[in-house]
């Protein structure tokens, strides 16, 4: 929804903050203390662009108007010309604001960095995370023009990734779907994605990620990274080259491990990718892709403003101090004073973590039926097992099972989804007509359980899976979601200068929920959450855009789109009708309406051989905003009380996005972007018989001002860039009674590409990355546990501290 507008949680609507948590972070080792991998890991384009518009500077936000040539060239000469690979942004001819970030730009940052963090250089994109790589999913937050990730569309090679919420019930994060080294170009549309994007929740823009293809020549790429706080990461990929029969394949694997930068705990991930491309005659191509991922990560504690003011940014969980955790729990349960320095039972938990295991695969056939007619069909499948764990002082372990004043509460997830995507494109005269269909069947199971702890605490790892011997199942639910989307669009080249795009999509999402009986110590426990069925449907969601070239260097564009977001379908979903009690659902189900958005934008682009620039203005109306209103008003809601879902009005957003890139010499360039967003609530909020003055207030989570500046150098051997990202102040309350200070964070990336014929140095690259260069202390994520109507005492624990300065060193080598 709108910037944290998104699941407008009136207080900690995450039903699983503690119960969900993420997994995985850094990695890397060294091959005999060195280790290698090469930028060659993904070979440079076969052709280089003659114009200086594509000069070095991996991140050329306003790049050339054509997408990078993704054909591979495995020669050392191609590697030497990596600097010519540029990011393509605001591509010529597009009827809406859209940019593409190149593969090379995604590789210049520290290995393991989320591509979402790298994309935050683009205008209008705000990304935050409390870890240096942006990979820690509990704290990940991306907001574009006021819409957060729950209301943006995400795909990888066209496969839907779901809403990227922490407790995702219909997908997985890009970091679990694709290794960072295998990321191809990533395309962002800030205002509205194409009508063909496979997403049922994209009220705002869309992010379309791609995977690189196998190379035509045999090769091995290895890499190793070491860094601050015990970070290490290893990566290896083998490309088969062209096989007998014309096919080609790669298989890759990585393992990463790091300590938390504060407190006690680890963040780990291991992942494998495989991709195979096989021509079937001259007219058909088969593509197969597979991904396996395991993530396990201990959490950082959520902070409040009052905690930061009195105790600083380093307050964290006490995973290494079970004795203190028991004292805190007993004090809470007995009503006695807390230990010295402890304000309440929620200040620090004994442990919390997130565990995820995913398998994702797809198969696609591309058909060149005639010179005018092309088609593609894709089938995909995804399974996920997840668990968010939290050692809770609210429910002690029964005496018969150990008698600890603590127990482990979990929120458990199981996703089984499969889908089909088909499209057909026909060119006739000055028209390119394209249509397609997307179907997905998703079975999702979710449960809240409690597991015993003994007097000595955890007997295994702090990221241990709890799937057996629960003494209580508070609730368990089974959901089925069927999604049907049809789209049709035409691109009409009316004159050589004027192009018109128009089309629509039809979206139907049928959601069914079945609540299962719980139990406590073998005795039945009534599940009070709602079951039933609800449909989100709209048969006509249009999009209309135009592009007009004034001359060789200047163009104008405009776009209008209407979109709908389907209801969430889970027990903890922020816009799920089934997160209510049966009574609340029965009272509201006939009045609930899916959220809608109307977006308009108009813009201007300029580009020549050295300067590229863009300016876009937009207006957005967000209607039928859904808010889950919690019965809790302050502090935390880790007990997960059921909330009431209702439509609470709308939001209006106005703003501008601007970007500028200047190659002032062959080796030097400067990039800058600025975004202004004024997102405000249209109505006051009434809950529990009380009306709150929210009309005209700023939307939670979204700063009004965002800016980026990056200075880059690349002579083919030595390369580097230093960048600054600025975020204006943000609020986490709907009445705007609390604000988080602005921050400006600098990052440094430098490297050297060896061009020696010596077998040791040949194909070798070295790289150093420094995050938060000036070691600034600041609040990174706002709203990690939700948002409140107000927080006059500053006691709401919904903030995540930004990571301190951290340094990473990487060696990469390409063999053969």
Automatic annotation (TrEMBL):
InterPro entries: Beta-barrel_TonB, Beta-barrel_TonB_sf, Plug_dom, Plug_dom_sf, TonB-dep_rcpt-like. One of its GO terms (cellular component) is cell outer membrane. Keywords: Cell outer membrane, Ion transport, Iron, Iron transport, Membrane, Receptor, Signal, TonB box, Transmembrane, Transmembrane beta strand, Transport. GO terms for molecular function: siderophore uptake transmembrane transporter activity. Residues 59-84 are annotated as: Disordered. It is a multi-pass membrane protein. Residues 103-194 form the TonB-dependent receptor plug domain. SUPFAM superfamilies: Porins. Residues 75-84 have a biased composition (Polar residues). It is found in: Cell outer membrane. It comes from the Bacteria. Pfam families: Plug (PF07715), TonB_dep_Rec_b-barrel (PF00593). Residues 302-773 form the TonB-dependent receptor-like beta-barrel domain. Belongs to the TonB-dependent receptor family. This is TonB-dependent receptor. The lineage of its organism: Bacteria, Pseudomonadati, Pseudomonadota, Alphaproteobacteria, Acetobacterales.
